[in-house]
Every structure is written in structure tokens, then in C-alpha cells.
């Protein structure tokens, strides 16, 4: 069973890590990007999809007056034209239009002034005739007949009869200018008080004024309504201050009679209706809004006309997908993917040239996108109050994804993916800026810190870092939104604290931060095993000299084992000085010569330890060259069976590149006849390659040749080492072995100095130690000399 499982996993690893043409990988990436685009667009567009209709027909389950059999909830937000609301607004607009009245100031001259002059003339004649008593006056002047004897007597007693007309005219003019006296009673008196009156003055200069509705007075109220009479009488006392009370009363009563007899205002219903129609037509169509996830009616509730209208509108609008919103989300995702793509091409063009890396990134991204959908369903549920305390971005595991990608790959790739994910959170959070800032800052910080995860304690530090960042951003969001951190209820400080928003968001930040760090620790071994990726922890495990392959190398090819560790020392120092992954280099060197294990005695470094007469005859150059080439192929096969990561396996063929085995090729040319030399194929004496594809494998190529050559130095000095290192590097350059590695001239200078440091420290000359017997002889000689 174990053999079958190991074999299956080896096959899976081979399939995932198989070297494929870049064009094939790019086609796979296009498919994965397209699937991601569709998936993200679908998840973010769910609120804009339609929903099933409900039957609101008279015989339907949701007709007006019936009991709702189930709860109906709108799946998206939409607005609709609300006819009832529009009619209500039109009615309000009509009710606010002032009532129209026409005021004819010509009545003053044609009616009141004429009759007043006639009555005062009769009074003058009566006084001349000596008939100036109240009874006679009331008999001769019919319009004064309802006045009391005291009021008539006050008129008769006033010595300046010529001023009486002026007093009465002033008073009537005051009433005409301030009030609107109408003949008929007004059935809309209450509405008039609210809306006011629009008075069109005619008879003088036609113009319009707006007055309060209580200034429009039906003439019947002049005598019947005590408050109105009192107000009008008070007007006389304010405008005629130098008149006695008895005369003032008489003047006001007589003036009110003339006003009553000749009302100057008339209600204009046509003008009023026209103004109302204009106001109603000016009202815009009113819309009502149904929020996403709003419960329109609950099961068991009675369906009212208002609810039925909402259900009808939901049937009309919600059954159609909001195509514009979906297209908008799709186009936005396209733009974001293009931005991320250009960023990765600019900074990491070769990072995603294998299938396993693409599957890791897209598979993990899909998991997070799916979690965004599930979390949004819970977070924005109608019966949930989470949005009142938390931000949606606090729940999404952005930190987990970016911490994982930052650790496995690098911060550039992780930040690019985090940037895309932050906008997905922004859309899913209903365009909440704090949720976007939470996702983006967590993505950046976790991406940067991911490359600094060197020990297990660093995961704990990462949890604290993510928690701290989220608390800062959430606090800023609370301040910006004006939310309450802490509200005292009088139950005690600690109880109020545990019930406060401050405590809740702090706990949530801790949960998200440490859950992300813990999830990465859980996923890493899983990803390492399935996708066979060389994480730092995986490399540390492989660097253990107790690894079965290294143990075989030690026992079967001990000199190769020693050579391996010397090459590792050289390569690791150079990688460190070039800021490369020195751990990857060290482990790659450990396994670069495992292919020598099957034929260890053939190779020169092991022959003195494993002498066997049946070894391949080195006098046969072609066969010897094939054996040397086979150690590369054998090493690759052994590494695959041991499920070594592809990045480690690449050191086996690339540290030889396509270089020529000069010794065997030269010997082949030397030993055969001149006619047979034409049949020698130089490729038979060349390693299969490929050439070094990275700086790391190129360093190992140089170090491997240098370590072997350094053993033949007669004298170890800085000058001799400089010459040797330069010679080896120039030979690799001459064969174009470093063309595809990315090494620069500056890098080669750093490599030279790094190798020189290591070789000087390891190949230095030690002083010759004296023999013990010589030391004892010197001691004896010194003791004899010291005796007297």
C-alpha cells in the first residue's frame, strides 16, 4: 500500500513539476485567469441577479388581504416609481398652493366713500335743523340704524364734524389694505390658514401679494366672531390714537358697517385650480427603494396594499438581472487582471513558468473568493447586526493568502494578488472604503513579512503584526464613520468594556490575525507534499545529512560526499553575497552528484577507496563518456523517486550544462585513426544540459569545477587562486554556459572574491608539527644544562 501511495504521489509530482514549454504554460494561465475572472464576477454579481416571481393575482398566494405563506426577501437593491407616493406628493403640493382672491380697491371710491359722504351730509343738515338727537339720526340715516344711542351721541358730541369722514375713511382703508373681506363664508377655512392667500389687487395697480390665511375674513364674522371684531376694533385704536374711546368705538362700528356692506375681496376658484395644477405637474415622479436583503413580508403577516405594491414591483424589477452592474463588475475585474498581469511581467516574468505554481496561486485564490461569498451571505443577512459593529474586511482571510504566497514565492507576487483581492473585498463589502483598506494593508504587510518567516516563532509574530495592523485601520474607520467605541451603561467599567465595540473589534482582529498565521502553518505541509514546493522549512528538512540519499552518498561515494560539502561551502558564500537563496543553493549542492552512487568507483575521487578491477575501461573514451553522462540521468531519476523538488533537481543537470568532457573527447580524437575521426560526434562527449537557468545553478557549476581543480594546485596563494578562478570562469564563458543564467559581470566579480575567501581559509598551509621524541630530547638537553 505504501509503495502504491508513494508511486502515485511521485506520478502526481512529476505531472505538476514537469518542465513544459513556456507557450503551453501561458495557455494554461490564460484558461486559469479566464476561469478566475468568471468566478469572481459571478460571486460579486450575485446581489444583482434576479429572483423568482411571486403570484399576486387575486387568486394567488400573495394577493392582497391574504396571509403570506412564506417570508419574501429581496435579493438585490432596486428602486421603482411609486404612484401612491407621487400622488401624495402632488396632493401636498396642491395643499401648499395659496388660495387666489381678487381685491377691488375701487369699492372704496364707488361704494364706501360715496355712501359715507351722503350719510355725513344728512347728519350736517340735521344738526343745522336742530334735530341732532340719536333717534332722529338713526331714523334719517338707515345705515346707522343699528348703532347704539351712545355711539350716535359720541358722533354728535364731537365738535370737529369735518374730521369724522377722515377718521372713518382711514379706518376702512386700514382694513382694506391689511385684510381681505369676502362676502361668502369659506368652507376651506382650515386649509386656507395653512396654505395662505394670494391676493390680486385690481382697481389700482394690478399686482399680487401673499398674505396669511387668517387675514382672509368672511364678512359674517365681523359681527358674529368676537375675536375678529376685537382685532378690527383694536386696529382702530392703534391707528387713531388721539380719539376718545367713545368716539373711537363709534367710528369703528360705523366703519365696519361700510366694510360689511361693500366687501372688496372675491374668491377666484379658477385661478386657484390652475395654480394647483401647475404645482402638481411640477412634482417629479417619486421613487421608493427596496434594499438588498430587505424582508418585504414575513410568513404569517397579512398582505396590505403597500406590501402588494412592493411585491408587484419586485416581480417587475427583481426578476431581471441588472446587466449593467454585472458588466461593470466584469470590466473592472478585467482592468485589475491586466494591471496585475503587467506588474508580474515587469517584475517576475519567470516566476509562474510551471504548472504547480499556477495551481497553487489560483486554487488558493479561489478558496478565498469562495469564502468572500459565504462570509457576505452571513455578514449582510437581514437578521444580522454584524455590520453595525464590524467591517466586512475583518472577516476575509486576505492575510492568510498573502502570508502563504509571500513565504512560498516573494512579496512582489503576493502583493499583486493581494491588490486584486482587496478590490474583490471592496465590491463584496458594498463599496466600504474601510474594508478595502483593511484588505489592502493586510495584504501588503503579510506579503512583506512572509519572506521573513525563518523560524516557527515568526508565525506568532506574524499573528501579532496582522492584529496590530487591523486594529489601526479599524480604529481609523471608526473615527471616520463616527462610530461609538465605548458607551457607558452604568453596569460597571469591566462589564461595559466587554460589551463595547472596542472590545469586540479588538477580539475580532486577534482572531483574524492569528487564524491567518495558524492556517498558513497548516497549509504549508499540505502544499509542500502535494505540489512538492521547496519552502524554507522543506529545504531545512532536506538539508539534514540523515536523508537516505545523502547517507548512501556517504557510504558508497565518500570522497564525492566530501567534495559535495566543499562545493556547498563555496556556493553558499557566493549566494549569500549576491543576496540569493543560500539555503536553496546548499541543498541543491547536497544532491547535485547523487547520480554517482551507482558507479561511485568509476569516478576519480572514489577510485582509491573503492578499487574494483571490473570498473569500466577508461581507455574506451566513448564508453567512459557515456558513464559520466549517465550519472546525470541517474541522478535525476533518483531525485524524482525521492520526490525532491523540481528546483533541487535542476541542480543535477544544470551544474554541468552542455559542457564538453574535454579529457575523453581529446583522448577519442587522439587514439583513433584520422579516417575514423570523421565519425566521432562531439555531442556524444557533451552533457545533455540544459545550461544553468538561474544564478544559483550557475554558481554551483563554477564552484564544482573550481573545487576539483583547486586540489591540483602546487602552491596555494591569493595570486594562484585568482588565476585558477579566472581560468575556470573564462572557460565557462567560452562555452557559453552562463548565457541563460542571468549572471552579470558584476555578479562574477562577487563570485570570484567569495570563492577566494573560502579557498584561502580551507587550503591554507599548516605548520609541520614536531615528533614527540624530538621534543623529549630537547627537554633532556635543557635539564642537563640547568644542573650546576
Question: Could you list some keywords that capture this structure?
Answer:
788 residues, mainly alpha, Hypothetical protein af1432, four-stranded mixed beta sheet, two-stranded antiparallel ribbon, 62% helix, rod-shaped, Metal-dep_PHydrolase_7TM_extra, HD/PDEase_dom, transmembrane helix, transmembrane, membrane
Give a description of the structure.
Keywords: Membrane, Transmembrane, Transmembrane helix. Residues 560-709 form the HD domain. The protein folds into three domains: 94-278, no CATH class; 323-533, no CATH class; 537-673 and 683-762, Orthogonal Bundle (Hypothetical protein af1432). The longest helix is centred in the middle third of the chain and has 31 residues, at 501-531. 32% of the residues are buried. The strands form four sheets. It has a four-stranded mixed sheet. It contains 33 helices and ten strands. It is rod-shaped and about 180 Å long. The mean pLDDT is 82. A hairpin with a 4-residue loop joins β5 (197-202) and β6 (207-211). The chain is mostly helical.
Amino acid at each position: 500500500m505504501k509503495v502504491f501511495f508513494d508511486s502515485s504521489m511521485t506520478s502526481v509530482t512529476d505531472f505538476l513539476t514537469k518542465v513544459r514549454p513556456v507557450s503551453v504554460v501561458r495557455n494554461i494561465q490564460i484558461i486559469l485567469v479566464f476561469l478566475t475572472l468568471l468566478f469572481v464576477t459571478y460571486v460579486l454579481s450575485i446581489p444583482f441577479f434576479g429572483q423568482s416571481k411571486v403570484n399576486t393575482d387575486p387568486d394567488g398566494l400573495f394577493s392582497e388581504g391574504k396571509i403570506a405563506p412564506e417570508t419574501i426577501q429581496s435579493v438585490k437593491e432596486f428602486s421603482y416609481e411609486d404612484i401612491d407616493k407621487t400622488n401624495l406628493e402632488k396632493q401636498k403640493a396642491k395643499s401648499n398652493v395659496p388660495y387666489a382672491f381678487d381685491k377691488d380697491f375701487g369699492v372704496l371710491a364707488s361704494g364706501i366713500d360715496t355712501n359715507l359722504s351722503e350719510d355725513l351730509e344728512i347728519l350736517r343738515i340735521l344738526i343745522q335743523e336742530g334735530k341732532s338727537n340719536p333717534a332722529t339720526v338713526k331714523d334719517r340715516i338707515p345705515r346707522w340704524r343699528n348703532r347704539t344711542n351712545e355711539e350716535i351721541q359720541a358722533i354728535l358730541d364731537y365738535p370737529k364734524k369735518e374730521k369724522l369722514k377722515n377718521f372713518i375713511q382711514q379706518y376702512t382703508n386700514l382694513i382694506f389694505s391689511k385684510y381681505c373681506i369676502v362676502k361668502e363664508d369659506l368652507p376651506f377655512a382650515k386649509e386656507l390658514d395653512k396654505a395662505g392667500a394670494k391676493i390680486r389687487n385690481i382697481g389700482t395697480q394690478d399686482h399680487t401679494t401673499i398674505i396669511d390665511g387668517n387675514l382672509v375674513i368672511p364678512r359674517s364674522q365681523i359681527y358674529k366672531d368676537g375675536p375678529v371684531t376685537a382685532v378690527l376694533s383694536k386696529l382702530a385704536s392703534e391707528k387713531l390714537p388721539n380719539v376718545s374711546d367713545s368716539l373711537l368705538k363709534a367710528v369703528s362700528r360705523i366703519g365696519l358697517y361700510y366694510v360689511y356692506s361693500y366687501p372688496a375681496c372675491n374668491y377666484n376658484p379658477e385661478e386657484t385650480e390652475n395654480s394647483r395644477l401647475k404645482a402638481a405637474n411640477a412634482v417629479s415622479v417619486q421613487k421608493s427603494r427596496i434594499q438588498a436583503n430587505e424582508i418585504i413580508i414575513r410568513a404569517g403577516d397579512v398582505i396590505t396594499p403597500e406590501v402588494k405594491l412592493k411585491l408587484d414591483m419586485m416581480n417587475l424589477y427583481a426578476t431581471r438581472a441588472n446587466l449593467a452592474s454585472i458588466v461593470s463588475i466584469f470590466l473592472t475585474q478585467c482592468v485589475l487582471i491586466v494591471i496585475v498581469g503587467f506588474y508580474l511581467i515587469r517584475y517576475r516574468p519567470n516566476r509562474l513558468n510551471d504548472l504547480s505554481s499556477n495551481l497553487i496561486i489560483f486554487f488558493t485564490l479561489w478558496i478565498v473568493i469562495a469564502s468572500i461569498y459565504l462570509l457576505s451571505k452571513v455578514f449582510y443577512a437581514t437578521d444580522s447586526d454584524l455590520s453595525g459593529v464590524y467591517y466586512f474586511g475583518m472577516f476575509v482571510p486576505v492575510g492568510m493568502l498573502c502570508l502563504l504566497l509571500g513565504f512560498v514565492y516573494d512579496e512582489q507576487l503576493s502583493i499583486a494578488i493581494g491588490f486584486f483581492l482587496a478590490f474583490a473585498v471592496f465590491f463584496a463589502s458594498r463599496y466600504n472604503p474601510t474594508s478595502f483598506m483593511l484588505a489592502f494593508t493586510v495584504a501588503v504587510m503579510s506579503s512583506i513579512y512572509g519572506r521573513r518567516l525563518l523560524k516557527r516563532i515568526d508565525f506568532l509574530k506574524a499573528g501579532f503584526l496582522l492584529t496590530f495592523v487591523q486594529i489601526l485601520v479599524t480604529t481609523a474607520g471608526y473615527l471616520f464613520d463616527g462610530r461609538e467605541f465605548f458607551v457607558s451603561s452604568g453596569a460597571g467599567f469591566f462589564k461595559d468594556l466587554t460589551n463595547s465595540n472596542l472590545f469586540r473589534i479588538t477580539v475580532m482582529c486577534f482572531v483574524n490575525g492569528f487564524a491567518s498565521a495558524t492556517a498558513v502553518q497548516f497549509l504549508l505541509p499540505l502544499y509542500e507534499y502535494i505540489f512538492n514546493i521547496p519552502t524554507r522549512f522543506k529545504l531545512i528538512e532536506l538539508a539534514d545529512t540523515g536523508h537516505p540519499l545523502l547517507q548512501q552518498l556517504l557510504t558508497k561515494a565518500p570522497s564525492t560526499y566530501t567534495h559535495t560539502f566543499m562545493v556547498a561551502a563555496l556556493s553558499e558564500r557566493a549566494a549569500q553575497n549576491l543576496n540569493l537563496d543560500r539555503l536553496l543553493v546548499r541543498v541543491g549542492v547536497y544532491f547535485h552528484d547523487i547520480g554517482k552512487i551507482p558507479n561511485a568507483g568509476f569516478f576519480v575521487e572514489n577510485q582509491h577507496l573503492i578499487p574494483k578491477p571490473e570498473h569500466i575501461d577508461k581507455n574506451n573514451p566513448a564508453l567512459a563518456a557515456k558513464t559520466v553522462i549517465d550519472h546525470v540521468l541517474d541522478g535525476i531519476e533518483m531525485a524524482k523517486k525521492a520526490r525532491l523538488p523540481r528546483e533541487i533537481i535542476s541542480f543535477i543537470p544544470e551544474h554541468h550544462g552542455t559542457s564538453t568532457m574535454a579529457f575523453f573527447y581529446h583522448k577519442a580524437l587522439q587514439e583513433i585513426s584520422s579516417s575514423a575521426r570523421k565519425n566521432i560526434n562531439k555531442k556524444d562527449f557533451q552533457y545533455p544540459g540544459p545550461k544553468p537557468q538561474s544564478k544559483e545553478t550557475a554558481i554551483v557549476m563554477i564552484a564544482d569545477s573550481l573545487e576539483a581543480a583547486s586540489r591540483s594546485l602546487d602552491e596555494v596563494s591569493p595570486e594562484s587562486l585568482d588565476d585558477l578562478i579566472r581560468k575556470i570562469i573564462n572557460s565557462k564563458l567560452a562555452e557559453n554556459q552562463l548565457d541563460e543564467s542571468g549572471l552579470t559581470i558584476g555578479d562574477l566579480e562577487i563570485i570570484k572574491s567569495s570563492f577566494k575567501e573560502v579557498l584561502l581559509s580551507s587550503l591554507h598551509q599548516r605548520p609541520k608539527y614536531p615528533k614527540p621524541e624530538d621534543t623529549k630530547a630537547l627537554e633532556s638537553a635543557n635539564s642537563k644544562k640547568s644542573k650546576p
